[in-house]
## 1
Amino acid sequence: MKILVTGGAGFIGSVVAHRLVEEGHDVVVLDDLSTGFADAVPPGAEFVRATTDTAAGLLEGRGPFDAVLHLAAHALIDDSVRRPERYWRNNTVASLTLLDAVLRAGVGRVVFSSTAAVYGQPERTPIDETAPTVPTNPYGASKLAVDLALDAYARAHGLASVSLRYFNAAGAAGEFGERHEPETHLIPLALDAALGHRPEFAVFGDDYPTRDGTCVRDFIHVADIAEAHLAALAGAVPGEHRNYNLGNGTGFSVREVLDAVARVTGRPVPSRAAARRPGDPAVLVADGERIRRELGWEPGRPALDGMIEDAWRFHRTRRS
């Protein structure tokens, strides 16, 4: 298939694009490099530096394309609260522009990078896809809007679409790994603290009703996320839109992650307790039964230490 991957120079997008190339697909990566890196585009993929809202010319002029995997987005929760206009414009408006181009170009399948942030403060955990979607920040709301649009487009226009609601991506796949500027994610920050590139790791809240007082999160290996994209691409059904949670179904506390980083690296992770961040749920863990049942996908790399080992190998090449 000929496939357009938006955001294919980012952490998850680069791993997804790499797997598509490995499977023999004709891959075009579109990325504006606002958060991605040109050297993360996998060999064998064509690279077009452009924004998502300009993809119409690419789809219509360079087609025919069989599918679009849409991973391009702004994804910082705190930033979305401070600057919501960026998220509504880039995550929602640009995505709708892309979907209109998909229809005009006759592209049959769309796989969308959604987020567990659409659920907000969950009523129960683990979270399945029937849970209420009540996002507590503009980032989650901007992603939910696209989920809803995809559902309507599928019903009205016969589009085959899937939204993959990630929990916490982790790990690395060979030369493709996690790097952000600025870095806000737990595992890279802990690795930086272990390397001495930051003085300490801030634990936001140590008085939650969890086994050690720190927040519990569900981590999923980025290579498993890539496999889920392949499964979604193969399993998308014309006229239907499906939402799938992507997680391990197992939660790890912040303290457990720090302990695992210390084990893997053989270095202490200096840390300090800090105030809770507003809106942080105590526990976020996925119920991934639906995608297992309907697409036959399940995480193949669920061990936390394994995810951190892969992240550590990549991180040292970039930060040591």
## 2
Amino acid sequence: MTQPTDIRRVAPLHTALTLAANGVPPLPLRAGKVPFGNCRTCAKNACGGRPNMKTPGPCMCPGVCHAWAAATTDPHVLNSPQWAAAWRQAAAVGYHPGGAGLTVIGLDNAAAVAWARATLPATRTVPTTRGEHWIYQGVMQSANAVRPGVDIKSLMSYTRWLGSGSGTMAALPDAARALAVKEPSPARRAPQTVSAPLGGQDGECRHRAPVFLDRGIAMAEQQITGAREAVHATVYRTFLAVLSTHGRCGCLTDTHVAKLFTAAQAKGESPRHCMDAWTNARTTLGL
């Protein structure tokens, strides 16, 4: 008769091997969705690396070491005796999204899901205990708490495998990349007046109808108005998201920008900071 310990080992390992066969590098996770710790040889990075959170190195440890960097598509490693104990103890299967060329937007509550549906393009969606994972094709810098209830898992990170989900996977949008961009310090004092900041752009308009732009501006105003903390960062990220979507076709007018500035100033931002944030966002996007 098959023992319970064998069942616990086979189920996660079977999932891991299936993922690996499809180009998704898996790793075992302990209870609490955390990876297995380093072995004694690799503790405190004594081994010199193997791509960890900071420094790549030559470590060829056969065990389940270095968190996300343990993820692999090699079935011989996944089936190795050194990994057997980890699979017996595994509470779940994780994977390295960046290693598969993917980015996972983790949405931890209903408000975060509503924000994504109103802001990001539809893509493959996986239900989670508290919200959803939105999976995009493409990689980017990973970042936690980019806004309330929203995490980004891609390069140098891992997340729990919860199934393949539903829907067609879309390309990673600029609006998602903008979430992980920190506002740079302004190099100089920017002018405090708004004067047709993007009217000279001549890119092709993708909006099809003015209502798309108006809805985007209204949502951006709500995002700024709803900020309860980190108002500076929220204003900058909102400006960046608006510009990444609407900044290259010349549709933005003084009226649209003034609405954003008014919302920011109602939260206590100065006209100077608004203009600095707008200028920095344009510079970041190359506008």
## 3
Amino acid sequence: MIVTLTANPSLDRTVTLTELLRRGQVHRAASVTSHPGGKGVNVARVVSEGGAPVLAVLPGAEDDPVVHGLRTAGIEFRTVPVAGGPRVNLTIAETDGTTTKINEPGYPLDARSLAEITALLVELASGAEWIVLSGSLPPGVPVDWYARLVATLSLLPNGTRRTRVAVDTSDAPLLALFAESVGPVPDLVKPNSDELAQLTGLDPVDLENPMAAAEAAASLIDRGVGAVLATLGAAGAVLVTADDAWFAAAPPIVPRSTVGAGDSALAGYLLADLAGASLADRLRTAVAYGSAATALPGTGLPGPADILLEAVTAHPLTANRPQAPA
């Protein structure tokens, strides 16, 4: 079982244009689609389509459109009731594959809701191989909440392991994971090049180079993370652990939308991990899923039929993982 948390769920609406976007001009839409969203919901959708058991946890009312979408898709979920509705995230998709996103802030969560979500995750942790904490935090949530959840979910009070925790977030919640005052760090983090730059102080452009990205990821391993899956957009991805570093280039595709690509890559990694795959094959599967998402229009997410695993090859970067930069 994989459990995903989406603290800031959304209704993802995609407007596909018939031409390139021109600011200040009137445009015609070729299509408009809506899907239940938020990064954890996206991971759950891909994992479910991949045939693995998954349960999505989110705040939401019984009649809100995200809950309705999960129910319609047949994805198991548990909700913590809240009075407000989900945010609407708008994606504008152009004919050349460029996507522009406009994300609403989301419905605020109070201390009671956070306590209920935490208690629910603790309840589910005993039956979960992974708990995935994904996406932004809504208004009113302390920036270190993910960090505190990692500490709570990783270990039982007696110090024994409860479950493995993966985190995919950015900005202040990401930086808080590595604050000196926090306890356990995640078993897996999935930054993109911008987020890896936030953690290391390096230039995102430099981190598009796989070796540079692997060296930056190695600095997070030195801070206790079990594995770093760093997605590098069209360049592919690197996977770094305490013993190894691997790189896999993205297969040639026609990009149509980057929405959900990182979430799909994380889901691919988790599916391969559940199947007992090697590090190299976990990376290959992650890159295959992320690339497949990029080749789909709008907010479409890939299933097994969309994956071209044979087109992705993983290469060791060194005999051992690269040393972190000074």
